[in-house]
Design brief:
This protein has helices at residues 17-22, 49-60, 75-89, 119-129, 140-159, 185-189, 215-228, and strands at residues 2-6, 28-31, 68-73, 98-101, 172-177, 199-204. It has 233 residues and is α/β, with parallel strands linked by helices. α2 packs across α3.
Length: 233
């Protein structure tokens, strides 16, 4: 079975390397590489969640011939959700389960944490989230490389709003750190309203990037959840 992972704002596919290693022997883990970073750094980042999800759904079509699940963290959770909606709307087989991490449920209005006024506010917000990735912000050369992606990603999030529509039929597992500074447990629990399938909320010790320190626990949640869904892992 394939698990397709969607990184956070400003993040890259390499963010899921530890999880991929932990799941080795259980799942075929693929990670999305958004344009505007790492090996795709010369490509223009997407300026909206809708355009990004449209492209992701198109790229995912070849993977829908077999059983697959999605895992998205932070902005990646929004993209995993919107990609799943587009695949189903296009008549493609949907995911057997969707894992949504470090993100509150979508609403008609953008999250206050996504509406940032410029580079200074973006950098302050990213530093406040912690995680190993924020260390690149202290290197001027690395910062210059990541800022275009960060601007585009936060601009897309700041303009994103949920436009209604049918909930997912796929079961949903939501994961959140108990000390996440930007996502309250109640906001994460509200994903319940966006699925007609089984819903599971897992609260783990840690902040927004709890995944950095809880990789083995997340691995166990993923494998157990997929077994409960009736899939072979």
């Amino acid at each position: 079975m394939r698990l397709v992972c969607f990184p956070h704002a400003g993040g890259a596919a390499s963010a899921f390397l530890p999880l991929s290693r932990a799941l080795g022997g259980h799942l075929d883990v693929l990670a999305v590489q958004y344009p505007g970073r790492q090996d795709r750094r010369r490509e223009e980042p997407y300026g909206s969640i809708a355009a990004h999800a449209d492209a992701l759904a198109e790229a995912m079509v070849p993977l829908t011939g077999g059983t697959y699940a999605l895992f998205g963290h932070s902005m990646g959770a929004v993209l995993a959700y919107e990609t799943a909606r587009r695949l189903v709307d296009a008549g493609r087989p949907g995911p057997c389960r969707v894992f949504l991490s470090g993100r509150g449920a979508p609403s008609p209005l953008p999250s206050v944490h996504d509406r940032l006024g410029g580079d200074r506010e973006i950098l302050t917000a990213v530093r406040g989230l912690g995680g190993t990735g924020h260390l690149v912000l202290d290197d001027p050369e690395l910062l210059a490389m990541v800022m275009p992606a960060l601007r585009a990603d936060y601009g897309a999030l700041g303009a994103y709003h949920w436009d209604g529509g049918s909930p997912l039929a796929a079961p949903v597992t939501v994961l959140i750190g108990d000390a996440d500074p930007v996502v309250a447990v109640e906001e994460a629990a509200a994903w319940h309203d966006h699925t007609t399938g089984d819903f599971d909320l897992r609260i783990l010790p840690g902040g927004h990037f709890y995944l950095d320190d809880r990789t083995d626990e997340v691995r166990d949640i993923i494998t157990t959840s997929l077994l409960v869904a009736g899939s072979t892992v």
